Amino acid sequence: MCPTEPPTEVKGMGTRATAYGHMLSIAHNPHVFAVGLQDSCGAEPLCCLSSALGAPCGLTACWARQAVLDKYHGGERS
């Protein structure tokens, strides 16, 4: 469903083409996730299913925000 190779060139002009050009320039960055986004549902099906079911009511967004705040910023202070 998703292509495995990035495009070789940016076709277009303007601000959007500049942004796409920057993304293309860092496409071969050695710092990548352990599991690619295209393979994430196959690697963690329970997490994928639970996030899909909780997304319409905002539960997954609230959980993810709280997890990031707890891990990187010592929790929410409000």
Measured between the Cα atoms of the first and last residue, the distance is 43 Å
Q: How many distinct beta strands? A: 0
**What is the CA-atom radius of gyration, in angstroms?**
17 Å
Note the run of SSEs as H and E: HHHH
The secondary structure category is mainly alpha
- Count of helical segments? 4
Uncertain segments are none
The outline comes out as: extended
What percentage of amino acids are in beta strands?
under 5%
Main beta sheet strand tally, sense and closure: none
Helix share, percent: 40-55%
Overall pLDDT confidence: 81
Q: Can you offer a commentary on this structure?
A:
There is one protein chain. It contains four helices and no strands. The protein is 51% helix and 0% strand. It is extended and about 40 Å long.
